[in-house]
């Protein structure tokens, strides 16, 4: 990899708990490329109170999904920014549907910057259950801990406010399994789409983050 000479254009796909956030952060800090997630883009547009932001806000406030067209338009706007075009990007959480994938293809074709690789981060369900069940949250202030990697000073209690810690309801094994099932169901089409396009690379994400990072780099080359 030359010194910033290569522009990466990637998509990361992976269920919650697979380490997608960790890998995106590593790529962002080491390669200087942008991580674009629809959640983050919504937040920015809403903060800036752009027309698109206000539109998205209305749906979010009503607990509804932001429609495809709005999401795609926001993503297109960000992808057109000179900085992003120059340094490259990782898309995280987008596209979620074939429609979005097709729209993305058009946008990138217009910009003459086709996708390079779609990385599917994969790990077996039991491993994710094991990882997430170590996460603890403060019942009062919401501070997060991890019984293995970030334990509280006093077992079972928050360092900040001394309230009891609990495994978040989101992180209960049966909730995790259901979430993974839904994730696979929702992303199967998109994964298949990129597989057929010859862009998909599957990376075993059960190893330590540095190893996974190297494996992703290898899969891109
Ligand atoms: Zn607390």
Task: Describe what you observe in this structure.
The protein has helices at residues 20-31, 38-47, 51-61, 68-79, 82-87, 98-110, 125-132, 173-196, 209-220; strands spanning 8-13, 34-37, 88-92, 117-122, 135-138, 144-146, 165-166, 200-204. Helix content is 49%, strand content 16%. Helix 2 (38-47) crosses helix 4. The N and C termini lie close together (9 Å). A hairpin with a 5-residue loop joins strand 5 (135-138) and strand 6 (144-146). The chain has a domain at 8-124 and 184-220: Rossmann fold (3-Layer(aba) Sandwich), CATH 3.40.50. The protein is of the alpha/beta class and 221 residues long. The strands form two sheets. It has a five-stranded parallel β-sheet, with helices on both faces. The chain has a three-stranded antiparallel β-sheet with strand order 6-5-7, with no helix packed on it. The longest helix has 24 residues, at 173-196. It has nine helices and eight strands. It binds zinc ion. Residues 138, 140-141, 143, 158, 160-161, 163 line the site of zinc ion (ZN).
What's the CATH class of one domain, please? Alpha Beta
Mean pLDDT: 90
**What is the share of helical residues?**
40-55%
**CATH architecture descriptor text of one domain:** 3-Layer(aba) Sandwich
Strand content: 15-25%
CATH topology of one domain: Rossmann fold
**What gyration radius follows from the Cα positions, in whole Å?**
19 Å
What separation lies between the terminal Cα atoms? 9 Å
What global shape is seen? globular
Task: Give me the strand/helix succession.
Answer: EHEHHHHEHEHEEEHEH
Bound molecules: zinc ion
- The tally of helices reads 9
Largest sheet: 5 strands, parallel
- Structural class of the helix and strand makeup? alpha/beta
Strand order of the largest sheet: 2-3-1-4-8
CATH H-tier superfamily of one domain:
P-loop containing nucleotide triphosphate hydrolases
Number of strands: 8
Give the uncertain stretches in residue-range form.
Answer: 1-5
């Amino acid at each position: 990899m030359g010194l910033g000479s290569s522009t990466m254009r990637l998509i990361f796909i992976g269920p919650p708990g697979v380490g997608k956030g960790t890998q995106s952060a590593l790529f962002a800090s080491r390669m200087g490329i942008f991580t674009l997630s629809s959640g983050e883009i919504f937040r920015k547009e809403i903060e800036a109170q752009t027309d698109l932001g206000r539109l998205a806000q209305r749906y979010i406030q009503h607990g509804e999904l932001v429609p495809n067209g709005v999401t795609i338009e926001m993503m297109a706007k960000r992808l057109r920014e000179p900085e992003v075009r120059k340094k490259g990007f990782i898309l995280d959480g987008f596209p979620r549907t074939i429609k979005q994938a097709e729209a993305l293809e058009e946008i990138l074709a217009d910009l003459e910057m086709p996708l390079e690789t779609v990385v599917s981060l994969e790990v077996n369900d039991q491993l994710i259950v094991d990882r997430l069940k170590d996460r603890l949250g403060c019942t009062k202030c919401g501070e997060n801990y991890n019984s293995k990697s970030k334990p509280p000073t006093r077992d079972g209690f928050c360092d900040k406010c001394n309230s009891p810690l609990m495994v978040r309801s989101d992180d209960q094994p049966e909730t995790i399994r259901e979430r993974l099932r839904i994730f696979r169901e929702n992303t199967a089409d998109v994964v298949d789409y990129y597989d057929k396009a010859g862009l998909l690379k599957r990376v075993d994400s059960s190893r330590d983050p540095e190893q996974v990072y190297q494996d992703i780099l290898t899969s891109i080359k």
